[in-house]
Each structure stands twice: as C-alpha cells, then as structure tokens.
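Task card 7
Instruction: Convert sequence to structure tokens.
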Amino acid sequence: MTIEIGDVAPDFTVMSTDRESFNLYTELEKGPILLNFYIGDFGINCMNYMIKFIESANKIIDLGVTMVPINSDSLDSHKLWKKRIDAPFEFLFDEDKKVSKQYGAIVGPGYMVSGFTNREFFLIGRDKKVKFIWKATTPKSIPTFDEILEGIKKAI
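Output:
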C-alpha cells in the first residue's frame, strides 16, 4: 500500500506504553499526530535519532503536534526503551506489523532488515488527512530534526 499527501490516513487501534488502547482517529480530535515508524528499540541508529528528537520534542509540541513512535517490538521492550532514553511521548505496539503494512512502512527486499518496519514519518491532521511524509530510502537513512520540523511547519 502506498499513502500519499492528501490521502485519508488509515485508522488503527493498538496498545501503547502509556495506556491499553490508542486509537488514531480518537487521538486526532486533540490535534495533529506525527506517526514515527522506526526499525527497532535499542538499535544504535534508532537510538541516536530518537535522542535528538527527545532533545527537541518541545519544538514539535509547541506546534500543537503529538509525536508517536511505532514499531512491532514488544510492549515490554518499548517500556524499557522509553525509560532508558527518558522519552516524553508514548510508544505504540504494532503487533504483527499490521499498522506498518497499512502505511506501507516496511523495508523492501535486498536489505538485511528486509520486512522490518521502515523509518518513516507521517504527519496526520485533525481532518484525518496526511499532511507530510518523510521516508527512508535505505534502512540507514536518518532525517535531520530540522527536515522533519520544517516539513511539519509547512504542512500545518
């Protein structure tokens, strides 16, 4: 599946580190959401960029946007990782990569991590439409915080 800017974002309900149920459409009533798909907890690349996002999380929050990282690592893994990196946001458990597949956020063939959740960002507005997308071209591609922040600012 391919999702493009302007498309209605697929709805989903999953468990999170902070509560039993996170429903995208319900959460969008509070404001825009930046879905942050990533390969895995405790990976060096994911750790480095997530720490940079944590350092600058207030800039995203000040824009009225909630960042929500998501992948298929277990809820226990997410809870440990969230605590270790002292993240101010909840992490979503994408059981069996159902949400990653809905959004087309899966690493393609030819990579050691083929089939894993890819590093991708989707900004979804209160109107449930996708406003901004950033997708890794390779599993090691990492956006700068400024790329994501500028994309959010232009989209809202």
